[in-house]
Every structure is written in structure tokens, then in C-alpha cells.
């Protein structure tokens, strides 16, 4: 069994350095430009899939929660490349009964907009990466 605490500790430390208003307003999406290539890599080959949450990890990786159209939840780890370069999916596994992360499934990142309220997302290099859909969309 692999240790699962390290990403959450790093995420908690990152949260602690942000003002409380930023923590409440943006949730997991505050790191979206840096994580976007990893989210795209995790969604590739997952037709109709959505990212329900993500968090940066150590060593240039991102941990991503996905949901397939039938409701199955998955966890993906992607290696992030330099800004402007594609990322590579490393692992994809079913989540099963693991509890949701705080803020999971509020807003959804997708490769195509799910509704009229979706906002385009650009990566750190300024390239279009996908769409952030508001709560209750799709």
C-alpha cells in the first residue's frame, strides 16, 4: 500500500500560505494554470470525462480526480513538463469508496464546455487548455 499522506500534507501547506478569502473563493482551481497540462493528459482517452478536483504534488506531478460519464471515479497522476509542453499520464486507477476531497465536484474542468457559464482556461504558457464549468453545470 502506498503512502497517501504526502500529497495532502503538501496541499495543506500550500493552503496555509494563502489568504483565507482566496482559499474559500477558488478551492482547488487556484493552481489551475500550472496544473492544466496534467489535467489534459489525464482526460485524454476519457471521452466525456471530467476533472472534479486536482492538487499539485512534489517532483512536478499533479494528482487528479476524474469522473467518467457513468459515474465511475478515478485517480490519475500526471507528470508536468515545462510550461508550454504537454504532460504525460503516469497512472490511472479506480477510486472506489474513497471519500471525496474537500471541494471535489464543485467545479469541473473539461476539454469542452458543458454549459454557457463555462470559462476558458489557459495554461502557464498562455495556451488554451480546457474549460472550467461552474457548480451545477453538466
Protein traits:
single chain, 138 residues, alpha+beta, four-stranded antiparallel beta sheet, three-stranded antiparallel beta sheet, 7 strands, globular, disordered N terminus
Approximately how much helix is present in the residues?
A: 10-25%
Number of strands: 7
The arrangement of helices and strands along the chain is HHHEEEEEEE
Placed side by side, the strands forming the largest sheet appear as 1-2-3-4
**Spatial gap, N to C terminus:** 34 Å
Q: Mind describing the biggest β-sheet? A: 4 strands, antiparallel
Strand content: 25-35%
Q: Roughly how many Å is the radius of gyration? A: 14 Å
Cα shape: globular
Explain what the structure shows.
It is a single chain. This protein has 138 residues and is α+β, with helices and mostly antiparallel strands. Helix content is 22%, strand content 30%. The chain has helices spanning 5-16, 20-26, 32-43, and strands at residues 50-57, 61-67, 73-79, 88-94, 108-110, 119-122, 128-133. The strands form two sheets. The chain has a four-stranded antiparallel β-sheet, with helices on both faces. Strands 5-7-6 form a three-stranded antiparallel β-sheet. Strand 1 and strand 2 form a beta hairpin. The longest helix is centred in the N-terminal third of the chain and has 12 residues, at 5-16. The model is unreliable at 1-24 (pLDDT under 50).
Short description:
The chain is of the alpha+beta class and 138 residues long.
Amino acid at each position: 500500500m502506498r503512502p497517501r499522506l504526502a500529497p495532502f500534507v503538501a496541499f495543506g501547506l500550500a493552503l496555509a500560505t494563502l489568504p483565507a478569502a482566496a482559499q474559500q473563493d477558488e478551492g482547488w482551481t487556484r493552481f489551475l494554470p500550472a496544473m492544466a497540462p496534467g489535467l489534459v493528459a489525464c482526460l485524454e482517452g476519457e471521452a466525456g470525462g471530467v476533472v472534479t478536483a486536482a492538487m499539485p504534488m512534489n517532483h512536478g506531478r499533479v494528482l487528479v480526480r476524474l469522473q467518467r460519464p457513468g459515474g465511475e471515479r478515478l485517480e490519475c497522476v500526471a507528470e508536468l513538463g515545462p510550461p508550454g509542453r504537454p504532460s504525460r499520464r503516469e497512472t490511472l486507477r479506480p477510486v472506489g469508496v474513497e471519500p471525496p476531497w474537500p471541494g471535489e465536484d464543485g467545479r469541473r474542468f473539461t476539454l469542452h464546455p458543458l454549459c454557457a457559464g463555462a470559462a476558458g482556461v489557459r495554461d502557464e504558457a498562455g495556451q488554451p487548455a480546457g474549460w472550467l464549468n461552474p457548480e451545477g453545470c453538466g
